[in-house]
UniProtKB/TrEMBL annotation:
Ranges for domain Shikimate dehydrogenase substrate binding N-terminal: 6-88
Family: Belongs to the shikimate dehydrogenase family.
GO MF terms, alphabetically ordered: NADP binding; shikimate 3-dehydrogenase (NADP+) activity
Catalytic activity: shikimate + NADP(+) = 3-dehydroshikimate + NADPH + H(+)
Originating species: Dokdonella fugitiva
Record's protein name: Shikimate dehydrogenase (NADP(+))
Enzyme Commission number(s) of this protein: 1.1.1.25
Annotated active site: K65 (proton acceptor)
Subunit-level organization: Homodimer.
Region forming the signal peptide: none
Amino acid sequence: MNRYAVFGQPIAHSLSPRIHAAFGAQFGIAIDYRAIEAGRETFAATLEAFARDGGRGANVTLPLKEDAVVLCDALSDRARRCGSVNTLLREGERWAGDSTDGVGLLRDLARHGIDARGLRVLLLGAGGAARAAAFAFLDAGARELVVTNRTAARAQALAHVLGPPARTCAWDALRHQAAFDLVVNATSAGHAGDAFDWPLAAGATPAACYDLSYGRAARPFLAAARAAHARAMHDGLGMLVEQAAESFERWHGVRPETTPVHEQVRAMLDARG
Ligand code: NAP
């Protein structure tokens, strides 16, 4: 059987094996998809062994998305642009890399009735996921994209590559900004569990807030958004399912239904508490 896997560290609690099994069941495809623990030092050798063992496709998550770029012999345009690979496809003796995070985010926003076209968007973070999100927002026709990051130089570098209508704003200066249509948290700050320090002025109520994280990691940002009276709040579980659907289609040539799988993993996540 062809083998598939998600690589990362930590990876034990990954929902990806369940998501891909559920997609496969829609088409009667029995999927051998496993979670494989690999850190930055072991990733290259682990991926090579996986390919020798029948590996045909892989997802890559923290902290390996940039390392995966280097291990690919070919990159899709969107992976090259954002310098990040979350999907690997075995083509003969080589790996081709793609990035499905940006399109996954846009599809999930659309599921929530949010179209980025014409919106004024604030993006918190400048890591791999933020880069994928930033290009996706510009492709979708965002009117303005303000990028801010704890390490300001990374936000400046990202805005420079993006060009207008992207620009940066120092985190501390966000309190002087007018209200945004959409505030997107693409930082990993929530994983530490600390309260999220809401950076916007009290009167600058955002229309919608979205955290790329899900589960416990999304709670601090979403709680802060609620306290700021944001009109809509969403976590990134739907993005996880949508980016997985895009990977699944690349590997198997068919597009799965995401709504029932989203409901299934939401129930699993709620049960974890
Ligand atoms: P990453 O490349 O490691 O980037 C982390 C980002 O978070 C950087 O901008 C970093 O700022 C910032 N950050 C970390 N700790 C912070 C803190 N205490 N306060 C403020 N900023 C902080 O990670 P990534 O791959 O972009 O992932 C970011 C988040 O998105 C993670 O929570 C990940 O789980 C989530 N994600 C979700 C999906 C999905 O499908 N739903 C897909 C991809 C990623 P510095 O530059 O200053 O270090």
